[in-house]
């Protein structure tokens, strides 16, 4: 199983240079709590939307969203302009 | 033409098999080739991990602006799966907005096999666009 990104590294350079390491691993327990709170509501929404044939959205929303978060590992964005430089890296 | 098909046609020419038998054999060979092709296709695209895009843009003869993006292919796949959850009505709005910007792409029609084909093509070539003001380079690694 692939691990989600643990850190988000951001570097900015305008007049002065500064960087930021965001510990994403601290966000995941919060996401888990939010997901657990949202889960009954999503299941309820799925039950309501089942006759309309739209239960897929509430049922698959959480797993698909988590999949997107996990796959961001390795995403890197580097912008160099005449005024500023920005680097964003999911590690 | 494959070697097997040629052999079947030779057998037909020699009169060793009938036209019906030759047709059946060729159909079976085509079916076999059809089932093998996607597996090879997926294997080739599975080796591709990142899509790299580099944009160099020269604005008013200043220092060129450079954008360097590395996107994991798995993220593109996950995004495509996620976008399949978008309801039909909402995706029509997105398509209309894209059409107004001159982009005639229906994102719902983009399938996983299309992405495989695209990645397979990008594995062997680098897309290089130069319009005089800047360049866009795209390749996979």
Topology, element by element:
The complex is a heterodimer of chains A (91) and B (141).
Chain A: E1 7-13, E2 17-23, H1 27-49, H2 56-71, E3 76-80, E4 85-90
Helix pairs in contact in A: 1-2
Chain B: H1 3-14, H2 19-46, E1 50-57, E2 65-72, H3 73-83, H4 88-100, H5 112-124, E3 127-130, E4 134-140
Antiparallel strand pairs in B: 1-2, 1-4, 3-4
Helix pairs in contact in B: 1-2, 2-5
* Through-space gap between termini of chain A: 16 Å
Number of helices of chain A: 2
Based on Cα principal axes, name the global outline of chain B: elongated
Strand content of chain B: 15-25%
What global shape of chain A is seen? elongated
Number of separate helices of chain B: 5
| Strand numbers in spatial order across the main sheet of chain A | 2-1-4-3
How confident overall, as mean pLDDT of chain B? 76
Measured between the Cα atoms of the first and last residue of chain B, the distance is 32 Å
Structural class of chain A: alpha+beta
Low-confidence stretches of chain B: none
The fraction of residues in strands of chain A falls at 25-35%
Radius of gyration of chain B: 23 Å
What order do the SSEs of chain B take from the amino end to the carboxyl end, as H and E?
HHEEHHHEE
Largest interface: A-B, 23 and 22 residues
Description of the structure:
The complex is a heterodimer of chains A (91) and B (141). Chain A is an alpha+beta fold and 91 residues long. Chain A contains two helices and four strands. In chain A, strand 3 and strand 4 (85-90) form a beta hairpin. Chain B is an alpha+beta fold. In chain B, 55% of the residues lie in helices and 19% in strands. Chain B has five helices and four strands, in the order H-H-E-E-H-H-H-E-E. Chain B has a four-stranded antiparallel sheet. In chain B, a hairpin with a 3-residue loop joins strand 3 and strand 4 (134-140). The longest helix of chain B has 28 residues, at 19-46. The two termini of chain B are 32 Å apart. Chains A and B meet through helix 2 and strand 3 of A and strand 2 and helix 3 of B.
